[in-house]
Design a protein that fits this description.
single chain; about 375 residues; alpha+beta; Rossmann fold; OB fold (Dihydrolipoamide Acetyltransferase, E2P); 2 domains; 6-stranded mixed β-sheet; about 25% helix; globular; binds adenosine-5'-triphosphate; cell inner membrane
Length: about 375
């Protein structure tokens, strides 16, 4: 790890005027990792990627690729390739010539070039399309050619800037899975930026959640989902309900909260800024809320809520209810066991406190 990683950065800062678009970011990406940087628009993802590619220079901090310091190495000398959202394949060149372009510039002999092109097209599942033009391909095929064109150069790092952003929903869903398979097959280290949490979650080995130029948390997808380190991560990654109230007490690792309608509920302590008498927020996922009758499982917390509507969406069907003037969502089982819920009826939603996370309200 550390300096031996494919990508290792320490304390990267990039300022525009008084605003730090990248604000002390450190990262450590071992070889063969699918690493995503996930964050909302304007959080600094593109700025960070440009530093890695060498299109821009950090004001502070160091970038190492496979142990070599890159700060003063120009983009074309870095072992890095980049795939953009609007991938520019050369429209008048065949697929084969598009892929050959970078190899030619490296002065690779024709015979070797032919071999590499055939192999990479095979690997991306397009063995017969070498002589087509890009406009004779589907969107997904074009995407795969763009990847093949980069991967054939065998970069240490492939940087991907929202490459699925321009595709329609169905194709995007399919390409997510395909990209993940391709990355594993090639074993190339991917650094992928996106604002789409589902993309990041499905594909990545590690996800860095970025906000205001900083990383809030770097973890595998499942850990981000189950153990979000900050309220921002809890709210940004996957669906979550947020209930706010006043902290009553903390015992062992359980926090007790008084919601604004007076109900006492519990969840696991998730931050070290919890103080009795201060505001706190409890996050509980829709699938962790159960519709409960009179018999409450021992140790469970519960609250009353009023049904607003039910939202049918197959396995992701939910009820939208209201408590303390706030919407709450609970997953509805679709095996026929879900009760019929009429609008304005009162329901009880219960949860195992170990599945809820309690943060102190952030002082901004
Ligand atoms: N050349 C520049 N000059 C001044 N400010 C800039 C420049 N480039 C980016 N910024 C600012 O830096 C911040 C981060 O921008 P950046 O493009 O990195 O965000 P992003 O996360 O990639 O957003 P998006 O998902 O919308 O592309 C923004 O506040 C942006 O306005």
């Amino acid at each position: 790890m550390g300096m031996d990683s494919d990508l290792f950065c320490e304390g990267l800062v990039r300022r525009f005027g008084s605003n730090a678009a990248v604000d002390h970011v450190s990262l450590d990406v071992p070889a063969g990792t699918f690493f995503s940087i996930l964050g909302p628009s304007g959080c600094g993802k593109t700025t960070l990627l440009r530093l890695l590619a060498g299109f821009d220079k950090p004001d502070q901090g160091d970038i190492h690729i496979r142990g070599e310091r890159m700060n003063d190495v120009p983009p074309n000398r870095r072992p890095v390739n980049m795939v953009f959202q609007h991938l520019a394949l050369f429209p008048t060149m065949t697929v084969g010539d598009n892929i050959a372009y970078g190899l030619k510039r490296r002065k690779m002999p024709l015979v070797e070039r032919r071999k590499r092109i055939a192999r990479v097209l095979e690997q991306v599942g397009l063995p017969d399309l070498e002589h087509r033009n890009p406009q004779e391909l589907s969107g997904g095929q074009r995407q795969r050619v763009a990847l093949a064109r980069c991967l054939v150069l065998e970069p240490t790092l492939l940087l991907l800037d929202e490459p699925l952003g321009a595709l329609d929903l169905k194709l995007r869903e399919q390409m997510k899975v395909e990209l993940k398979h391709l990355q594993k097959q090639f074993g190339t280290t991917f650094v992928y930026i996106t604002h789409d949490q589902s993309e990041a979650m499905v594909m990545s080995d590690q996800v860095a959640v970025m906000r205001d130029g900083r990383f809030d948390q770097v973890a595998p997808p499942e850990e981000l989902y189950r153990e979000p380190a900050t309220p921002f991560v809890a709210g940004f990654v996957g669906d979550n309900n947020r209930l706010s109230g006043e902290l009553v007490s903390v015992r062992d690792s359980l926090a007790e909260l008084r919601l604004d309608d007076g109900v006492l509920v519990q969840g696991r302590v998730a931050s070290d800024n919890l103080q009795a008498g201060h505001r706190a927020e409890l996050y509980i996922r829709p699938e962790s809320l159960v519709l409960s009758g009179d018999a409450l499982s021992p140790g469970f917390s519960s609250m009353q809520a009023k049904v607003r509507t039910t939202l049918f969406d197959g396995a992701n069907s939910r009820v939208e209810a209201e408590t303390c003037g706030q919407p709450v969502y609970a997953r509805l089982p679709q095996d026929g066991s879900a009760p019929r819920l009429s609008v304005d009826s009162s329901i009880r939603l219960a949860w195992n406190p170990s599945l809820a996370r309690v943060f102190g309200a952030e002082s901004l």
